[in-house]
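Q: Here's a chain of 206 amino acids. Please give me its 3D structure as tokens.
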Amino acid sequence: KVRRELAPVEAGRFFVYGSHDADKVPEGRIPLLIEAAMAFGTGHHGTTLGCLKALDAQAAGGAMPARIADIGCGTAVLAMAAAKVWPEARVMASDIDAVAVEVAEANLAANGMAGQVECLEAAGFEHEALEAAAPFDLVFANILKGPLVALAPEMAAKVAPGGRVILSGILNEQADAVETVYVANGFARAGRESHGEWTTLDMKRG
């Protein structure tokens, strides 16, 4: 049943797919394999699609972040995408759920990327490895409005000046409220897109 629902997702240079679609990867795309059993955060949400498109736009614009964090990483699809585009960068992925961290490790292995992303169990940035690696040049947080709002001051503290945060898990009608909180914490809008009922915000730290 899951397999029928799990269609590949195309977002800019990225192609997110399940193993049953391994023969469908188009030429010249960056393939990201997510096992169908691990269907949360696979890109079928407009949230992951929006984040991947924002990542794609940054790469196309010549961004070269050296330190990247995926906070609330789920399957770690965003961290993997970043590690593929910027192989020299230090990429870290954290999730509050220990199972998600295991899934992230499994997906990295399935993509031949074991060890390319540091996977940590943490709430927000509350981990000594994340604390030590800050400030970050790029942070993904595809979570939900409440945690995003709560994280805003910490984001301001952990993101380098000029750094970017790509935020999603935000319903369209919540986007203004989230943006306002981040602006109040020293960020400015660099991009904003909706996919279905979800909005992705790309905010730049002043």
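Q: Can you summarize the key feature?
A: The beta strands are 9-11, 14-17, 30-33, 67-71, 90-95, 118-121, 136-142, 159-171, 187-195, 198-205.
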